[in-house]
Amino acid sequence: MNTPIAGAPRRVIVGVSGATGTALAVRALQLLGAAGVERHLVISPAARRTAAYEMPEAAFDAEVVHNFRDIGASIASGSYPVDAMIVIPCSVKTLGAIASGVSENLLVRAADVTLKERRRLVLCVRETPLHLGHLRAMVTATEIGAIIAPPMPAFYAQPESLDDVVDHIVARALSLIGVHVPGAPPWQGTPASAARTEDHSQAGSGGPSSAPGRPSR
């Protein structure tokens, strides 16, 4: 299992693979930078090709940008201190390679190192529909310590633009590696839920035991 992160991470590896979702990667890098995190970036050739279609002017900002083929890079070793890694978006090819431990490039090698050192690894797998091979790869990755976090939009946040959707997805993913984005507070429940909680609190402090909505024991 992954070791829990104590406090905000100081150094994070960001892997970007060839699945659709360039905007997610760009925004993740921006928010990590705003949080003062040192970013080590690995982008696959397929990801650059996807970016050329989706966001031709995309800027992948990071303190360190590693060569995808450089398996001798600092992040290829477990002795190099890193707090966590996120692959956003994560293609099923990259998912499968991570699940099987086939470290043929730096992105997969860094993920493998993250797992073997019991650090947090989040895979934002982007594919649909899923066949059994995809699902089995997700199960295997989960069993060896990764967190599978598909970039799913949340409509309860009442997004008003595509940027809102991207921000919510990225903020949720980054929270899994201990980075909390200002302006993206955790869900606190509906007003009705809050009212029921208040009712329960009052009932527990001397109210009638038969108060409506009181949980049974």
TrEMBL record:
It comes from Nonomuraea marmarensis. The keyword Transferase applies. Flavin prenyltransferase that catalyzes the synthesis of the prenylated FMN cofactor (prenyl-FMN) for 4-hydroxy-3-polyprenylbenzoic acid decarboxylase UbiD. The prenyltransferase is metal-independent and links a dimethylallyl moiety from dimethylallyl monophosphate (DMAP) to the flavin N5 and C6 atoms of FMN. InterPro entries: Flavin_trans-like, Flavoprotein, UbiX-like. FMN binds at residues 18-20, 44, 91-94, 126. Residues 208-217 have a biased composition (Low complexity). Pfam families: Flavoprotein (PF02441). Dimethylallyl phosphate binds at residues 156, 172. The keyword DNA-binding does not apply. Residues 187-217 are annotated as: Disordered. The gene is ubiX. Keywords: Flavoprotein, FMN, Prenyltransferase, Transferase. Its EC number is 2.5.1.129. PANTHER family: FLAVIN PRENYLTRANSFERASE (PTHR43374), FLAVIN PRENYLTRANSFERASE PAD1, MITOCHONDRIAL (PTHR43374:SF1). Residues 11-174 form the Flavoprotein domain. This is Flavin prenyltransferase UbiX. The lineage of its organism: Bacteria, Bacillati, Actinomycetota, Actinomycetes, Streptosporangiales.
